[in-house]
Automatic annotation (TrEMBL):
The chain crosses the membrane at residues 71-90. The keyword Membrane applies. Its main location: membrane. It comes from Sedimenticola selenatireducens. InterPro entries: Bact_OuterMem_StrucFunc (IPR050330), Gly-zipper (IPR039567), OMP_bac (IPR006664), OmpA-like (IPR006665), OMPA-like_CS (IPR006690), OmpA-like_sf (IPR036737). CDD domains: OmpA_C-like. It is found in: Cell outer membrane. The keyword Transmembrane helix applies. It holds the Pfam family Gly-zipper_Omp. One of its GO terms (cellular component) is cell outer membrane. Residues 111-229 form the OmpA-like domain. Keywords: Cell outer membrane, Membrane, Transmembrane, Transmembrane helix. This is OmpA family protein.
C-alpha cells in the first residue's frame, strides 16, 4: 500500500507544478511598455490568462476526481485561453481606439477590462443643445468603425452635466445627449442591441462645480466599452 501511495505521489507532483509554471510563462512572456510612461508592465492579456488558468485549474481538479492532476492541467489550459482571449481582444480594441482618437480631445482610459471614452461637452454639443455638433461627426465616425469591428463588446453611453440649472433640466439634458450619441453610433452600423444609454444629470461630477473649469469638465458624455463574456 505504501508503494502505491508513493507511486501516485510521484505521478501527481510534476502535474501540480506544470499549471503554475504555465501561468508564470504566460505572464512573464506578455509584458509590454506603456507608450506614455515608458514603464514595463504586464499586459491585460497576460493577466486574464493567469486568472483564467488559476480558476480553470481549480475547477478542473475538482471535476476530475480520479486524476486531479490531469483535471487541473486541462482546466488551467482552457481557463487560460479564455481569460487571455478576452484580454487580447480588449487590448487590441484599446490600441485601435487610441490611434483613432489621438489629437481629438477625447480621452481613452482603461480600468481592468473596461474602456472609457470621455467626450467633453464643449466639443460634442453646443450650449444647452442635445444635437451632436457636425464638427464632431468625424470623431464619432472613427469610434463607430472600431466599435463595429470589435462587435462582441457591449456599450453604455452616459450623459453628465454640471450643477447649473435645475436637477430636472440637467437630468433630461444628460439623457437626451446620451441618446443623441447612441443614435449616431447606430447610424454608423453599430448594432443597437449592444448599446445602452443612461443620463446621470449632475449626480456624478468628476471636478469642482464651483469653478468654471470644473463645470466644463463635468459636462461630458462617456462611452463605456465592456468586455464580452467568455
Amino acid at each position: 500500500m505504501r508503494d502505491n501511495l508513493a507511486r501516485e505521489t510521484r505521478i501527481l507532483q510534476p502535474n501540480r507544478l506544470i499549471a503554475p509554471l504555465m501561468i508564470a510563462f504566460l505572464i512573464g512572456g506578455c509584458t509590454t511598455t506603456d507608450p506614455y510612461t515608458r514603464e514595463t508592465k504586464t499586459s491585460n492579456t497576460a493577466k486574464g490568462a493567469g486568472i483564467g488558468a488559476v480558476a480553470g485549474g481549480i475547477i478542473g481538479a475538482l471535476v476530475n476526481k480520479k486524476d486531479r492532476g490531469k483535471g487541473a492541467l486541462v482546466g488551467a489550459a482552457l481557463g487560460g485561453a479564455a481569460g487571455g482571449g478576452i484580454g487580447y481582444y480588449m487590448d487590441q480594441q484599446e490600441a485601435e481606439l487610441r490611434r483613432a482618437l489621438e489629437g481629438t480631445g477625447v480621452s481613452v482610459t482603461r480600468q481592468g477590462e473596461h474602456i472609457t471614452l470621455n467626450m467633453p461637452g464643449n466639443i460634442t454639443f453646443d450650449t444647452n443643445r442635445t444635437e451632436v455638433k457636425q464638427a464632431f461627426y468625424p470623431v464619432l465616425d472613427s469610434v463607430g468603425i472600431v466599435l463595429e469591428k470589435f462587435n462582441r463588446s457591449n456599450i453604455e453611453v452616459a450623459g453628465h452635466t454640471d450643477s447649473t440649472g435645475s436637477r430636472e433640466y440637467n437630468q433630461q439634458l444628460s439623457e437626451k445627449r446620451a441618446s443623441s450619441v447612441a443614435r449616431y453610433l447606430e447610424s454608423q452600423r453599430v448594432d443597437p442591441r449592444r448599446i445602452f444609454t443612461q443620463g446621470y444629470g449632475e449626480t456624478s461630477p468628476v471636478a469642482d462645480n464651483t469653478t468654471v473649469s470644473g463645470r466644463s469638465i463635468n459636462r461630458r458624455v462617456e462611452i463605456q466599452i465592456l468586455a464580452p463574456r467568455a
